[in-house]
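[Automated response] Your request has been received and processed.

Submitted sequence:
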Amino acid sequence: MKVITLEEEQFERFARTHRYRNYYQSASYAHTMIQFGFKAHYLGIIDEMDNLIGATLLLYKEVFMNNKFAYAPRGILFDYTNSFVVKELATKLKNLLGKQGFMYLKIDPFIPTTIRDEFGNIINMNNEANIILENLKNAGFQHKGNNLYFENEKSRFEALVLLNKNINSLFQSFDKRTRHKIRKAERSGIKIYKDLNYNVETLYNFVKRKHTRPLKYYKELCKNYKGNIDLYYAKLDTEQFVINSKKLYEEEMDKNDKLAKLIQDPSKKGISQRNTLNKKMESDKLINTYKKDLVLATKLLKEYPEGIIVGGALAISYDHAAYLVIEGFNTKYKALNPNYLLKWQMMMDYQQKGYKYFNLNAVSGEFKEENDYEGLNEMKLGYGSVVTEYIGEFDLILNGLTYNLYRSFNKEKENKQQKKAPKKKEEK
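Generated structure:
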């Protein structure tokens, strides 16, 4: 076995067809991260017959006393099932990178271990996962553990919506709350459209407070994944919002009047009268809600007669699937549920294109206990999603002395990051 340098084109040809292919292991991602202080290199792994049997994009930078760290995002693209070749690979990487001033190599292979339902129950398992895990550990790769939250560079758990159904069946597979929120967004006058000019600044304004990536990152993604990236926006049609709110209010008022008359009907007694009274009370609540909506709609129409953008999302297409990169919305309009309709429109579009699934990105791996990410899971899993659990993150230490010094100097930073993992029973 040898580890060699690959040209970008050689790497791309191999990466596009590998079993664990993903959009992070691509030249497009390399070109993006180069703009943020990383250098990129493509490594190939060849056997004794000079056949290319593995490859990876390596991102690297100097981080400590002229020493570097390397990261293979969702890589290395390699068959890890043979313990002998995994050990040999680790030895080759240590010899090669260790001599070039690298402290450690981080990998997080795109290898699924389980498929779970929305409750966290395992519905499918990768029979090779335990073998691969042990092979990596025995070769010297230090596993970061089966963490449940967002401690790693990439999440261990992601929600996927399978698109192998017709539109009606797909919609009916969503839970009741999700369907209700999508319908409410439609009734409120939310319209979804694709921004073909990729004006990502508006989306960034929705997400900049909760994400650390700068605006430039999303601009670079749009540039480097051109032709394979979609920017969607949710726009509130304020005129339609007024029309729909007025219609709902008037219809409910009419229904409420009829219920009031039924309550006064002396022939209605017992269970029948109690049922009517309960319906009247529910109608009273709806009238109050629709009235508030009508007041808000009238106000917004005056302020924004041309409508207002209230949410957006960015997704990358790769290998007959779509991956949600980032989404956000104006929290002032949370009650209109623009983000729910936004993702539904994207799913319909991707289903029409014949895509296999829509990856909604990270979720928590804690399904049963209360935690800070319950709302995130509820929203993403409400689309009838399945959850893919990945094998996790590993470090291959290349220079133990400098690695330990580096870790020591960064201990305080790591402790702060660990505190971000929510405590069970903590209020959301």
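Summary generated for your ticket: Residues 133 and 221 are 32 Å apart (CA to CA). The chain has 14 helices and 16 strands.
If you did not submit this request, please reply to this message.
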